[in-house]
Specification:
Layout (H helix, E strand, L loop, with lengths): L1 H24 L4 H23 L4 H38 L5 H31 L11 H18 L3 H6 L6 H4 L7 H22 L1 H26 L2 H14 L3 H6 L1 H24 L4 H18 L6 H11 L4 H11 L5 H15 L10 H17 L7 H11 L14 H26 L5 H5 L3 H6 L2
Helix pairs in contact: 1-2, 1-3, 2-10, 2-13, 3-8, 3-9, 3-10, 3-15, 4-12, 4-15, 4-16, 4-17, 4-19, 5-18, 8-9, 10-13, 12-13, 12-16, 12-19, 13-19, 14-15, 14-19, 15-19, 16-17, 16-18, 16-19, 17-18
Length: 464
């Protein structure tokens, strides 16, 4: 009987996929198909949980099958991240008029990422204070205790690496290993290698223009092929979001969310406030925030569903370049850097809120100016080096809490709502990367305003 139910659930998913294929054939816009997949995924996941209940054998088997579509799509995206970053950054650099532009681009992108993360820390502190959040308000169950023990064990690994060690991990020693994505810093390592190759080509162009021209033609050909692969994979986005969201909702611990509803609301208020600050920044630089918002929503929808900043890199680059009019080189670098450093949600808001919640348990006043200043500075520094240890929000929290001499085990109290909060954090991380690219391109006078202001471009560039 269980097999019958599983087959029925799979048939329902296939039917919804058929609807999305029909919408594609009828030339519905990419964004409309993405949000249809998102909405139907939420509905399907809710129905599955109501019928079978969390943890049931039927639901577990069903979500395993659904993962072929959802996780399979994320894997395809991860597959093209390294080739895309490698080829696109090399091509961007060899098209620069001079290498001095590279330094300016990198400085503005990284500067905006780190600065906005420090602003996000202030937002996290303010929100946690406003909602009067405290770790003492949460009762630790078995899962929370086990999570806390695991965090304490992991802390030892984190503390073994100093900040200089984490930064050294950015520098590639075996580029072929990094191309396989084996290290947490693989993307940054590939970016650095690509920059070195691009600069080398600029040097060869001055002394041996024929060889440089030949290499440039090869890179341009590879870029055309890689971008075609990107297009083919991105066509699957509505299906991937459908399955990912169905699985997420079906496996969500709603009882835990109800119990910790105050913390969920506070987290999303902080994320929303920071998102508004992003839009204000866009407006400050003379760009229409609503136009920006309309063009990035499909990308944020995928980031929210997949909880993968790295997996969103291809969508991020495409949207910046084709919809927002961001310079190709800046789009490539901001998407790559933003996936591994200066993450506003994971490295900014989250550890700041945790620190404010835990501070009273060790006799620290979280509102003292000294505490706030120290916390924000530590978050700024750690957000730059967080890629050195990998693991996103968890490792960011470990670094910040241990640096503030606070017990890291208490961070495990939020395990039941971790996935739900992480969805919003990831979307904010990706938006921060896109904002840094857009603003950097604007400052350096490389933003195509015609493309940015053209409201039809999003339909043309994303109707895949």
């Amino acid at each position: 009987m269980n097999l019958l139910y599983i087959f029925l659930n799979i048939a329902v998913l296939l039917a919804v996929i058929g609807l999305l294929i029909w919408m594609q054939k009828k030339h519905y816009s990419f964004s409309r198909r993405v949000f249809t997949g998102l909405g139907l995924g939420i509905l399907l996941g809710t129905v599955l949980q109501l019928i079978y209940g969390t943890g049931s054998d039927v639901l577990t088997a069903t979500t395993d099958w659904y993962s072929i579509v959802g996780s399979g799509y994320v894997r395809l995206l991860m597959m093209i991240v390294i080739p895309l970053v490698l080829v696109s950054i090399i091509q961007s650099i060899i098209n620069l008029e001079n290498s001095a532009e590279l330094g300016k681009m990198s400085a503005w992108i990284i500067g905006i990422l780190i600065t906005t993360t420090m602003v996000a820390a202030f937002v996290g502190i303010g929100t946690a204070t406003l909602f009067d959040l405290s770790a003492e308000q949460i009762e630790a169950g078995q899962a929370e205790s086990e999570r806390g023990t695991m965090l304490e064990t992991t802390l030892g690994e984190v503390q073994d690496q100093s900040t200089p060690d984490k930064i050294l991990n950015f520098i590639p020693s075996n580029i072929f290993m990094d191309m396989t994505g084996q290290r947490s810093t693989s993307v940054i390592a590939v970016v650095i290698f690509s920059i070195i190759v691009g600069i080398a080509v600029l040097g060869v162009r001055r002394k041996k223009p024929e060889q440089a021209e030949m290499f440039t033609k090869i890179i341009n050909s590879l870029y055309a092929v890689v971008m075609r692969i990107v297009t083919l994979v991105l066509r699957l986005t509505p299906f991937g979001i459908l399955a990912l969201m169905a699985n997420t909702v079906a496996n969500t611990d709603f009882a835990g969310i109800v119990e910790l509803g105050k913390f969920v609301i506070a987290s999303y208020v902080a994320l929303f406030v920071m998102f508004i600050i992003h839009l204000v920044l866009v407006g400050v630089f003379g760009l229409n925030p609503l136009t920006y918002l309309k063009k990035v929503i499909p990308v944020l929808g995928f980031a929210f569903t997949s909880r993968s900043s790295a997996g969103t890199i291809p969508l991020n680059i495409q949207a910046q370049k084709n919809s927002l009019g961001v310079d190709q080189g800046i789009a490539n670098m901001s998407a790559s850097f933003g996936a591994t450093m200066g993450q506003n949600g994971c490295a900014g808001i989250y550890p700041a809120m945790l620190a404010v919640m835990i501070a009273p348990t060790v006799g620290i006043d979280p509102l003292s100016p000294g505490f706030i200043l120290q916390l924000v500075l530590i978050i700024g520094v750690s957000s730059f080096g967080i890629a050195g240890v990998g693991g996103g929000a968890t490792f960011a929290a470990l670094i910040v809490l241990s640096s503030m001499n606070m017990p890291v085990a208490l961070a495990g109290l939020l395990i039941s709502i971790e996935a739900l909060i992480d969805m919003g954090r990831t979307a904010l991380n990706v938006n921060g990367a896109m904002v840094s690219g857009t603003i950097s391109s604007r400052i350096l006078k490389k933003l195509n305003l015609k493309t940015f202001n053209d409201k039809t471009v999003i339909e043309e560039s994303t109707s895949l």
